[in-house]
Amino acid sequence: MFHTLMIVLYGAVAAIAFSVTLLEGWVSHDRWTVHRIAGLIACLFWPLPLLFFILHGSVSRLATRLS
């Protein structure tokens, strides 16, 4: 249940960042440059460190309870 919630939240944050980045390029009438494509790809991966720390904290608490 917790992991499902984290995946849904991750997807929501990534989708919002992707949408905003896409709209910024559309509003400025910018072409599909390497920088714009890299920015869109980065939107999918930037929440990974946050997800890692949250999951690490969960595993640490679980390991403490089990020991």
Shape: elongated
Radius of gyration based on Cα positions: 17 Å
What is the string of SSEs from the N terminus onward?
A: HHH
Structural class: mainly alpha
Number of β-strand runs = 0
Q: How far is the N terminus from the C terminus?
A: 23 Å
Low-confidence stretches: none
- How helix-rich are the residues, as a percent range? over 70%
Average per-residue pLDDT, rounded, comes to 83
Strand count, sense and barrel status of the largest sheet are: none
Proportion in β-strands:
under 5%
**How many H/I helical runs?**
3
List keywords for this structure.
85% helix; 67 residues; mainly alpha
What does this structure look like?
The structure is a single chain. With 67 residues, this protein is mainly alpha-helical. Helices cover 85% and strands 0% of the residues. It is elongated and about 55 Å long. The model has no long low-confidence stretch (mean pLDDT 83).
Topology:
Elements: H1 2-27, H2 34-45, H3 48-66
Helix pairs in contact: 1-2
Please give a quick description of this structure:
It contains 3 helices and no strands.
